[in-house]
Amino acid sequence: MKNPRSALCKTSIMASSDIFKVFGDQLLDSTINAFDNLFLQLLLKASQGKRFVCEEADRALNAMVKSVTPLPLLNKLRPYVSHSNPRVRAKAAITISKSVSKMGLEGMNEFGLVSLVQMAADF
């Protein structure tokens, strides 16, 4: 995804969508920080200027939200609330919003309503 060629970048983003669909929660169990690096790159690509790369990164983020259980995903998303790039924070906020809406009230209570409100306030 770090390749400057847009077509190659878009193809790698499409591959990450497939990875989310196939592996789902197993990506969060890994001991290496590969998921964190992948997620950061997706946020960066979703917030850049090239429209077709941005749209594909948004689709990959949506595939991630659909494929990964919301509670552990929110724990992974929490550090991006305070990212230095405001566009990355905005994309993280959208992803958190979609994940929270997937949770339901029981999941929100399990995560902690106070924590959710604090995250929203930090944005």
Automatic annotation (TrEMBL):
It comes from the Eukaryota. Transmembrane segments: none annotated. PANTHER family: ARM REPEAT SUPERFAMILY PROTEIN, CLASP. This is CLASP N-terminal domain-containing protein.
